[in-house]
Amino acid sequence: MTVKVSVVIAVYNPGKYVEDCIQGLLRQSLTPDEFEVFFVNDGSTDETPARLDRLAAEHPHIHVIHQDASGWSGRPRNTGIDAARGEYVMFADHDDWLGDEALERMYEYGKANEADVVIGKMAGIGRPVPQELFRVNRPRVSVANAPLMDSLTPHKMFRREFLAEHNMRFKEGRRRLEDHVFVVEAYLRAKSVAVLSDYLCYYHITRDDGSNAGFQRFDPVGYFNNLREALDIVEELTEPGALRDRIFSRWLRNEMVERLRGKRLLKLPEDYAEELYREIRGVVTERFGPGVTANIAPVQQVVAGLIHADLYEDIRALAEWEAAIRPTGTLDSLTWEDGGLNIGFTSEYQVDDAPMTFRKDGERDLLGLPLSDKALLALTEQDIALDAPVGASDVDLVVRHREDARQYYLPVTSELHRVDAGDGSFRLRITANSVLDPETAAGGEPLTRGLWDLHLRIKSCGWSKETRLGAVRGEDVEAGRLAALTGEPRRMVLPYFTDGPGNLSLDVDQHTNKLEREAVTLMDPAAAEVDGSTVRLPLALAVDAGEPVQLRFERKNVGKFPADAVADGRTVTAELPVEELTGKRWAVRIGVPSADRGEAKWTRLPVDVVVDAEGRAKVIDRHTPPANAAPKPKPAPKKKPAPPRPLWRRAAGRLKRALTNQQKKS
């Protein structure tokens, strides 16, 4: 059978981190005869070579190539390209892993769209990954019509014949940005690029030992000389003009301007920051004209203008101001309706715990930046305006899996509000509403079992910052925070507020035992009632009448007695098996359907049922002691320890023992 995909992994001393990579490959939905793996060991000195050799001995489609250390990933990747036999070559890092169906889905998507390059959706665990690129599937795109330049890491599929046709190889030796040179050349030579966004293909992680190569401090001179090589490729394969300027703007934005903003600049040692600035300015003044600067966001344009004007002190002052910017969100409402969780919220930027303000100049909205007169003059001479495009401001609400960082954008409708702040300035507040349907929120598919967190992202005037939602919330929000049963088979979705910060999260399909803890909030024991043998428990569930909810009554060493129950939104009603319960106090458990288990999961409620000898029942708070319980005896007072002997008495004792021993010897 033809090999569909060759996976190439450069390996150097990954230690335990290679295990996730290995397991991800062993779980692939492609059969072993449909793909092959090349671990290229670049002179590892840890236990990894032996681990990989054992792996290859057990799995014929996995191969290990050992070579002397080259110092970086370019040479081992090239070795893998030379060995590959697949239609496509997929590059992965030794400390990342693939989604279980990644190779199959990316291959089929690439073939269907005749793609030379296939980019699969990425999740960043502790590190940033592209956001806008993966909003939707993009079957046939290029750098001219899609934000491909947001993704310049090599973790993609490349058609092998395409690489051979253009003799494409990674730059070798100990260097930076060899992946940028390779990937941007592939983008510009490819007839078609396909972006698969409806399945999470690649997990890009931050190692907890902080040893990811991309996080190490670099030599600015060497780094920006390497970056110039990527610019050279663009100049070779494009004509001067709008497209080239747009491509160049990616490096101006990400590799230069963003390194000189906010906390990212301020946390660097000052001498290193100044050296970094000098090298950045060298590239900016050599290679980037006004057309490149025009393609970046307003505040980024300001920083680029200050670089051109060589105003480093103004850059630092602006960085100190930006470091104090933070996004805020208020959860205004939370209600279930037609199977969806309606989330109303308000968002705004703050600076130093005060709302961010913008200035008015006639019909113009202006950024309120802390710039010197010299800086303002320099920006004016470069035709860089301080206009604030507040009308383009927007918010996103993202639901993200806590364990593996899968995330999905929720539909949001928003409205901008200008709030007068006095002295000719105004605040910008965004009110929004989103509907989270647990059965479609994962890109049209149901949210899987687990904990899902909600993240709010505000985009305005070049700032894009993220915060959690729920810590600040309206008074009426709690009343709408109900558990709901959704989907077929039925499963529970429980909104809850996290311990400590109080952020809004979802427990889908009872991944944890949070229902027992949250039932204290969702249920008022004092409102429970018994009418004859019928018990009504005020458990707030956003469900329709007749949902499959069960009750049972338990007592240790006695038994468990079920009762037919009906849930009708905010009440669970059941007929008590009075004869079995008479004369005892019983714990009450609720059984809620679980799609993952295939049966109900039982959770104790914060109430007990007591049935007296005459068969009369009542519901009490479970923390209320039994009526006939003997009072707990008071613990005996602890004896106070004897105080230590004075130091002089201990010294006298040692002297006496020494004299006694001396007399015995004599």
Helicity range: 25-40%
What share of the residues does DSSP label as strand, in percent?
25-35%
- CA(first)-CA(last) distance: 99 Å
Largest sheet: 9 strands, mixed
**Uncertain segments:** 209-215
Overall radius of gyration = 32 Å
The beta-strand count equals: 33
Mean pLDDT: 91
Overall body shape: globular
| Count of discrete alpha- or pi-helical segments spanning 4 or more residues | 17
- The computed structural class is alpha+beta
Describe this structure in words.
A hairpin with a 4-residue loop joins strand 29 and strand 30. The chain is built from 17 helices and 33 strands. Helix 6 packs parallel to helix 7 and helix 7 packs antiparallel against helix 8 (242-256). It has 666 residues and is an alpha+beta fold. The model is unreliable at 209-215 (pLDDT under 50). Strands 1, 2, 3, 4, 5, 6, 7, 8 and 9 form a 9-stranded mixed β-sheet that branches. Strands 15, 16, 19, 20, 21, 22, 23 and 26 form an 8-stranded mixed β-sheet that branches.
